[in-house]
Amino acid sequence: MNLRIGHGYDVHAFTEGNHLVLAGVRVPHDRAFKAHSDGDVLAHAVTDAILGAAALGDIGQHFPDTDPAYEGVDSRILLCQVVALIKSQGFEIGNIDATIIAQAPKMGPHIPQMRAHLAKDCEIPVERVNVKATTTERLGFAGREEGIAAHAVVLITKKGTDLFF
Ligand SMILES: Nc1ccn([C@@H]2O[C@H](COP(=O)(O)O)[C@@H](O)[C@H]2O)c(=O)n1
Ligand SMILES: C[C@@]1(CO)OP(=O)(O)OP(=O)(O)OC[C@H]1O
User: In which residues is 4-CDP-2-C-methyl-D-erythritol 2-phosphate bound (predicted)?
Assistant: First the structure.
């Protein structure tokens, strides 16, 4: 199959701190992500979407949260490893669309840098990467500011498939 789609979803709760990391961008906040890694929900959702598209399981199977090697790891490193893995199987990434679900902080000013990081890590032009943010109108765990979620969908193609004409 030349064209495959994947979905990723991740959530991290807050703990004490002064910034969040989203697609490797340091976003000032009055809390931080509680996680084994840097807690980068956006990078995790994109990584899971890529793995999903290639039917290669999920991020926790590749990088267990019980492995000290991943303690505090920069999640962009994990994303780059997964991109290398699917490339080794003859795939490349077509495009990415992601949504951050956060009551606060405002993501808008940071989105251009998030897109740039994801494009670099996924080895595609930034025009093929979209990142959005939404509140939940104060409903649910995100609305109560207990944590942040991210969804991502990713299209992958067999190398040489011309999708963008
Ligand atoms: N953490 C967030 C949440 C939202 N935005 C931007 O605000 C717009 C309105 O949000 P609603 O939840 O009321 O739809 C949204 O479309 C985003 O552009 C944001 O920057 N950061
Ligand atoms: C990234 C990994 C590995 O450090 O840990 P966490 O930062 O806890 O993140 P999560 O999305 O819960 O699961 C994937 C893990 O394997």
Answer: 10-12, 36-37, 58-60, 63-67, 102-108, 134-137, 141, 144
